[in-house]
Amino acid sequence: MMKSFLRATVAASLVTAGAAGAWAGEIKVGSVAGVTGPIAELVVPIVAGRNLAVKHVNEQGGLLDGDTMKMALVDSQCDPKAGVDAGNKVVNVEQVVAIVGASCSGATNGMVQSVTIPAGVVALSDSATAPSISELKDNDLVFRVAPSDAYQGAALAKLAIDAGFKTLAVTYSNDDYNAGIAEVFAKTYQELGGTLAGNQMHEPNKASYRSELATLARGGAEALAIFAYYGGSGITIIRNSLENDLFGKFMAADGMFDASVLEQIGADTLRGNIFITQSASDYGDSSYKAFADAFTAAGYDPVSPYAAHGYDAAFLIALAIEKAGAADRGKISAALRAVAGPPGTVIRPGEWAKAKAVLAGGGDVNYEGASGNVDFDSNGDVSGIYSVNTVGDDGKWSTKLIE
Amino acid sequence: MMDFINFHLMPGIILGSIYALGGIGISMTFGILRFANFAHGETMTLGAYFAFTLIQLTGWHPIAVLPFAMILTAVVALGIDRVFYKPFRARPAIMLVIASFGMMLMIRSAIQFSWGVQLKSLMPGIQRPYILFDALRISPKHMLIIGSALVLMLAVHVLLSRTKIGKAMRAMADSPELARLTGIDTEMVIRATWVVGASLAAAAGVLLAIDTHVETMMGFKLLLPVFAAAILGGIGRPYGAMAGGLIIGIAEELSSYAWIGNEPLLAPGYKAGVAFAIMVAMLIWRPSGLFRGKVF
Lengths: 403, 296
Description:
The complex is a heterodimer. Chain A contains 14 helices and 14 strands. By secondary structure, chain A is α/β, with parallel strands linked by helices. Chain B starts with a helix and ends in an 11-residue tail after the last helix. Chain B has one domain: ABC transporter involved in vitamin B12 uptake, BtuC (Orthogonal Bundle), CATH 1.10.3470. The chains are: A alpha/beta, B mainly alpha. The interface between A and B is large, with 36 and 43 residues.
């Protein structure tokens, strides 16, 4: 009897310790990402970017008094409902100090509105780009290092005009990210003198879009602007369009930027017939190079969408914890603003030991990230630069920065 | 007019054939085993992944590996029934429903673990359709999908009407107590039900994968229309599920045709709601379905 009581007590205390999350010497940060779902391939390098930053932090002295920074990875499935579950898990079970993520705009919107804002936890997304995230009443708890699609949609519209397309059809998937960027795109394209021959929402994950595309094609558009996740509906839309001669030319934003588009449709079929914008980095910048070298050494492609942003997001959270001087949820927001922008000693990717020394001496740091200068505006947004991707002669995406 | 056939009716028939194959399994497990099998969608996914691996190993055409994928899936379904569902057989049906929900998550995770979450393709590239009579467009893979579905449905018909086990299955769907009293080996019938249901589910998964691609959520996304097909046709009525599947598939696609004026009757974004609406309407006004199935 006594024995079993003892066993129960030990078990209970173990459970409590587990729930509290942080064993002595370990600080947990949530890493929420769409590991499964329609952008599964894209998320792999983003999570690798986050983990590389954590590796740099832990190799160069760790957080605060030598504590280990640990990422609690949870799957948000690129879905608002799963995003809420993921947020609950990291906030209430893992008891994280702050969160990097979620990946998709819908998942991020769900997670921050239902969980992290009420709980007072900072969420810093590395790839959620919907304009609607800027407008959240977030008590300064929602940040992102990915630029708002208010810019990307306009950049893509300008490219369409430059490419000589006078009439376009638009189809967008029914979710926060795609509806948001489609709206900006359609508005800018019309302001620049283009005509929309059709603008239609579609439901993702259907087996066929032939009837939708036939309706859109009746408007006589020269090309189709697709706002969708490649694994949700994007690839099916391109395939249905080509197989039925409904559309031959396409443009899209970063939700479609993946190698599987070329694998599934065929690079030769798409060469010269598609361009895709993507949030990019200034590839000549020394911050980017520092990241790119380390990321390449780790076996990943540094140009992967939002990988640099993933690195920056995790590194910034580490800096914010160090600046706050404690693993205290309430202090992260102010500390994050302090370390992300001027004034202070410039810190670049990989320079954790330097940052730690400056902060220990009571100084300020200003992180200049691999993805850009990451200076947050009042909405917690950053400005961004974009690249345009076409199919290269080697059958892979060929990337060029947009001036 | 040709637009109507090419872009609305044909996709509807293709989609409907896939729903029909999936619906037969749902309808039969519901009718004979008396529970709504939520893992049925995952069974379809599993079939598509088996086909993917078989193609990788042999380099054969997807239709050539289809029978083997169906056998493998049926074997897995039998194993799952033996280990997970059999112990619940004498318990209230709700326990089986919940067990199947758990099984759905387990199969999906096992697939994600073994094959990864990346998109895969059974037939990469695009296929231009044949153009018949200058206007009717049909691509070879769609002929294959419709043809395979027809052959399989015919096989189900022969099984149910001409064989002893088929008759036993129909008897059990009508009244399990009476079937047992007349000396039918109910465990045997249950195993046969799993084999038929799972192999048709695998076929539905492979045919869908031929039309689109292979990914871990593909079966789950089909679950709702497939349930709607089973309910529309009448639970426990395989012929009903075939008709129900075709009706739901065609209704979904035709709902966005410009019946009045030039605008789609229903914005295509709401197509998925059509299956829902049909299901709810049937449950309210005619719960026994078109073919007078079971009402629980």
